[in-house]
Design goal:
This protein is α/β, with parallel strands linked by helices and about 400 residues long. The chain has 13 helices and eleven strands. The strands form two sheets. Strands 1-7-6-5-4-2-3 form a seven-stranded mixed beta sheet, sandwiched between helices. Strands 8-9-11-10 form a four-stranded antiparallel beta sheet. α3 runs parallel beside α4 and α11 packs across α13. The chain is globular, with a radius of gyration of 22 Å. Bound molecules: pyridoxal-5'-phosphate (PLP). Pyridoxal-5'-phosphate binds next to α3 and α4.
């Protein structure tokens, strides 16, 4: 038998217990919420470190950051008020004229922000087809590219990018790799372990898990020391006031306690749904890396724990209106944007991302929740039948 004193509880246990939290004064197993905007100095008029003003963080936010850093295997994590404010801080931290390489099709908000910085002359931008490493290798400019953005699995077609290979390409050109693995949270994909320099997640999604908080997080293996990029990003957060607020951080810690359970159930539901609808007569395609037939399956298997998360898309047959009608007719799935919550969502992605984003007009993005899989399958079946029936009538 191994020496029990050397036995470290598993990551699942540590996260379920929010790092075995116990409040020192009371023994409470749940933390309080520290909402203070300011902190009094001590008797020598010195700042009582580490907190002094809310815009620089609070212990509630720091607790959530510690849980995420543990999940990511990160040296440090920084929480922001949204995924977009975290992504923006990274772009903002780049020197003027920096060259950035990002997928042609990706989460539309981040792409809009990259285009806005490009239009202002702050950065130059090249793109590659998501998951296509040859195109990525061709798009980086050695010595000039500072940041490679990879989203995997990639919205809304769920192409998989080999993170290790992408990081080799980025590093070969002297660039940093940032990964957006919002679709596969760090309990199933730890991007830093595969060479990513910055792991980005919209914590609004799986980490929070209950559609009741917006948050974004950046995590790093190396902070780059004084005056480095990480210090710059932290400074941007402080000066822009985009730190996650305490109440939201508290909700996030509460949500993360069930992360492993939720993602396990959502992944099991998703594979059942994908298998049921693969080859379905009302569908042209099911896009889900968990399907053995999916082109990204082998890479996805290598960089996940064997769970593939709950994100998939279906392309329906018929017209664009047929696709919109499916969203109108579901009764269990909510016709809503976002993803990664306990409730299943369906979305006509083209309507949401708007003109200018090359999204298939008949693509529906599904975020599979933790409900009963049969209820979800039945719901999609009836909505597809109704939409198809009315379309052909
Ligand atoms: C939601 C999302 C974002 C943006 O995060 P917010 O929390 O909504 O600001 C970025 N990337 C992906 C993949 C997302 O799903």
């Amino acid at each position: 038998m191994t020496d029990p004193s050397n036995r470290k509880p598993s990551l699942a246990t540590r996260v379920a217990q929010a790092l075995h939290f116990v409040e020192e004064e009371t023994g409470a197993v749940v933390p309080g919420i520290q909402p203070a905007a300011t902190y009094a100095r001590d008797e020598n008029y010195d700042i009582r470190k580490p907190y002094w003003y809310r815009r620089d963080g609070s212990q509630t936010t720091a607790h959530a950051e510690a849980v995420i850093a543990e999940l990511e295997g990160a040296k440090e994590s920084l929480l922001f008020a949204s995924g977009m404010s975290a992504a923006t801080a990274v772009i903002e931290s780049l020197p003027t004229g920096a060259h950035v390489v990002a997928p042609e099709v990706m989460y539309h908000g981040v792409k809009m922000q990259l285009h806005a910085y490009e239009a202002n002359g702050r950065i130059t931008l090249s793109s590659y087809t998501a998951g296509n490493l040859d195109e990525l290798a061709g798009a980086v400019q050695p010595g000039k590219t500072q940041l490679v953005w990879a989203e995997t699995p990639n919205n809304p077609n769920w192409e998989v990018t080999d993170i290790q290979a992408a990081s080799d390409i980025a590093h070969g050109a002297g660039a940093k790799l940032i990964t957006d693995c919002t679709g596969t949270p760090p309990n199933i994909t730890r991007a830093l372990d595969f060479g990513a320099d910055i792991s980005f997640h919209s914590a609004t999604k799986y980490l929070g898990g209950h559609s009741d908080v917006t948050a974004g997080v950046l995590s790093v293996r190396e902070t780059g020391g004084e005056g480095g990029f990480w210090e710059q990003i932290a400074l941007i957060r402080k000066l822009q006031g985009t730190v996650l607020q305490s109440f939201d951080a508290w909700l996030l810690v509460r949500g993360m306690r069930t992360l492993f359970l939720r993602v396990e159930k959502a992944s099991a539901n998703a594979i059942a749904i994908a298998k049921h609808f693969e080859g379905h007569p009302a569908l042209e395609a099911v896009l889900y890396p968990g399907l053995p037939s999916d082109p990204g399956h082998e890479v996805a298997k290598r960089q996940t724990t064997g769970l593939f998360g709950g994100m998939m898309s279906i392309i329906v047959k018929g017209s664009e209106q047929t696709a919109i009608d499916v969203c109108r007719f579901t009764e269990v799935f909510y016709p809503a944007t976002s993803l990664g919550g306990v409730e299943s969502l369906i979305e006509h992605r083209k309507t949401v991302s708007g003109e200018g984003f090359p999204v298939h007009p008949r693509l529906l993005r599904l975020s599979i929740g933790i409900e009963d899989a049969d209820d979800l399958i039945y719901d999609l079946e009836q909505a597809l039948a109704r939409a198809g029936g009315e379309g052909s009538a």
